[in-house]
Design brief:
about 300 residues, alpha+beta, four-stranded mixed β-sheet, two-stranded antiparallel ribbon, 8 helices
């Protein structure tokens, strides 16, 4: 999925999480609704079906966001696209926290499965198939949509939830960088398989989704390489990130926003040695968190594993 909310419409805010809807969702909605007119006796049911898809995806993304907050992470907005949703979550850089933040999304679909199945079976026992055929078909379609999203999302292909869950599990064993590297390599293989499947089915949407998966895999691979290089750097004693507890590396890895020179901010106490600019916050190169220098005084220092 694209990463950003440009061109998106703000829908509402719930539990401190802003929900945005990308403008392209409306274009695809019109195409999908008009294309499925023959499924029901009225196009209204096609519209309700697409809205049900929208609702299921949104609840799924809220599962990610709320779980991330539960483990002390940050999650403040969700963007809904025609091909799905993106919950912008930033859990603490620990495998357990990341695993729960990712797994909570599919768990929402798991919980919905028996609820929707019971409603469908209840409708069948009441004879809705004959009395209300459109409503009956709609209920079973919503059940199929939820099940399909669950199965597809759990494919072990990065950055789908299944691929990120696999990465989190590998993180316990091989570390942060190597787990991401392995997940993206598997993702490339899975994306290649999806492309072939899309060509066989002549599915434009699956082809587009496969393209975005490839882009995310490439980004993940580069991130894994950067994490691997970062983990091998010597670490400075006496400081640790207030959030992830990683000790900062020794070297000129911070760039002054004014003169653009690189310097070691921990050696100069967050003051650029070239232009004397002073910085109120310092960025952790391991987790990206911005905190004042005074909060970096360390008692426990952890060097992130490969």
């Amino acid at each position: 999925m694209p990463t950003g909310r440009q061109g998106s419409i703000h829908l509402f805010r719930f539990a401190g999480i802003d929900v945005f809807l990308h403008w392209s969702w409306f274009v695809v909605a019109v195409f999908e609704i008009s294309g499925g007119f023959k499924s029901y006796s009225s196009v209204t049911w096609n519209a309700l079906e697409y809205l049900a898809l929208f609702l299921i995806v949104m609840i799924h993304e809220f599962g990610h966001s709320l779980a991330c907050r539960q483990v002390g992470g940050k999650a403040d907005h969700i963007v809904l696209w025609p091909l799905g949703g993106v919950a912008y979550v930033n859990p603490p850089p620990r495998p357990g926290a990341t695993l729960w933040s990712i797994a909570a999304g599919p768990l929402v679909n798991v919980v919905l499965l028996p609820i929707l199945a019971m409603i469908c079976l209840f409708g069948r026992s009441l004879g809705w198939a004959a009395a209300m055929p459109n409503a009956y078909a709609f209920l079973w379609t919503v059940l199929a949509i939820n099940a399909g999203l669950l199965v597809f999302n759990m494919l072990p292909i990065y950055p789908l939830d299944g691929g990120q869950i696999l990465r989190s599990l590998l993180w316990f064993v091989v570390g942060r960088a190597r787990s991401l590297m392995a997940a993206t390599v598997i993702g490339f293989i899975g994306a290649a398989g999806l492309i072939m499947f899309a060509l066989w089915r002549q599915s434009i949407w699956l082809g587009v989704l496969s393209f975005f998966i490839l882009l995310n895999c490439w980004g993940g691979l580069r991130h894994a390489q950067a994490l691997s290089r970062l983990a091998k750097l010597p670490r400075r004693d006496g400081f640790a990130c207030p959030w992830c507890q990683a000790a900062p590396p020794v070297g000129n890895y911070w760039v002054c926003g004014q003169c653009k020179n690189a310097f070691d901010t921990f050696q100069t106490q967050a003051v650029c040695p070239y232009c004397a600019a002073q910085f109120p916050v310092t960025k952790c190169l391991d987790c990206g968190e911005l905190r004042p220098m005074r909060e970096w005084a360390a008692q426990t220092i952890v060097a992130p594993p490969l």
